[in-house]
Amino acid sequence: MPDVNEIKAVELAKVLKEKQEAVNKAVDEVKGIGEELKGKLAKGDKVTEELKNDVDKLLTEVNGLKSQVHDMEQAQARNPVTPEGAKTLGSMVVKSDQFKSCANISQGDRLHIPINVKELGSSEYMSYSAGALVQPHVTGLVSLPEQRLLVRDLLTPGNTDSNMIIVPREEFFKNNADVTDEGRTKPESNLSFTQETVTVVTIAHWLKATRQILSDASGLQSMIDGRLRYGLKLKEEQQLLNGTGNGMQLTGLIPNATKFKNESNIKTFTIIDQLRLAMLQVVLSGYSATGHVLNPVQWAEIEMAKDDIGRYVIGNPQGQAIPTLWGQPVVATPSMKQGEFLTGAFKMGAQIFDRWDMSINIAFNNDDDFVRNMVTILCEERLALAIYRKDAFVTGTLQGVSAEPQKAAQKAAQEAEGSKTQ
User: Fold this and answer.
1) In what order do the strands lie in the sheet with 393-397?
2) What's the rounded Cα separation, in Å, for the pair 99 and 206?
3) Where would one find coiled-coil regions in this protein (predicted)?
4) Given 78, 107, 131, which residue is the final one in a domain?
5) Which end of the chain offers a freer environment for a tag, N or C, measured as fewer CB atoms within 10 Å?
6) Domain count, the chain
7) Quick one: CA torsion of 320, 321, 326, 329, rounded to 10 degrees?
């Protein structure tokens, strides 16, 4: 048998399950022989040497299997690829060296705890875990994330060390590529850029807390996860979508997106149809749409749309997958105004640049914290959004008469009937 420490976590879990089943089977066999022995002894029958040997053999086998199971359970617990407990911003703060040393900090000092958000992911909802004590079953499959997507998840990530980003924005491209004869001058295509400066902005907020919370790691963790990080990410999403670029606001996607225009000959369409037409508009600009952003109300209407016999067109009440429409992910967020949408080539058309990852500062001498025995906990980040091409994004009001095909058909029929009677 190979060294159990060298078996990968998935293989180890599989072998462990097989060994546990073998132990259970062997125990059942021992119980069966035990019942047979008990019956013979009750009748006064003589127990044969063969039966005794069978019992000894099975007991030896059970003990050996139990030993193997114990070794594998120990190896699984210390295996470097065994999943760890879920990380949250709060748990990273309370486990940091800076926080652990706060007992030695004097009244006038300030505690700064930088956080690597790449270890957290970008999901809005926190993962409250029982910790590494309760390990998830490893199946060998990478499951889809259960949390809702954020606008940040659709965009290309990036980092910067500067306070401003110079964006070379493509304004015009004329493709003159053509087949050419030998010796002829090759055709020249034209491409023009303009430069735009995007300022790195700061998003921050703070909370007051009693100094005693520094002794309550779980309480501090829940405050950071449930309020500070959540509030920061909520404001970030609002700015990514709706920021005007004026003052200290981000340059948002919607104010810079192209207005929806029906490029097809279809005159009557549903909400679902309109989002497909918006994808077409993005394609005609030279990009491929990679996502949609909707208000949760409109996404609920789309998911609940039914055909003529009551079957769901898009939604599945038992579904667990990431929301998608026309093969692309959907972000349903309250930051999107009701009745409006955004469709675009998020990966190619724009990019987030993080100047500061999310960080936590704990101050002991802000205002009257000293006399009130309070602390101030500040959460902040710095970032910029660069939009490379505005026509890679399409926005507008959802003009579709309904998300439901039969209602759209009925409305179209009524309009046609009305035009005949006029």
Assistant:
1) 258-259, 393-397, 340-344, 291-294, 328-332, 324-325
2) 17
3) 9-75
4) 78
5) C
6) 2
7) 120
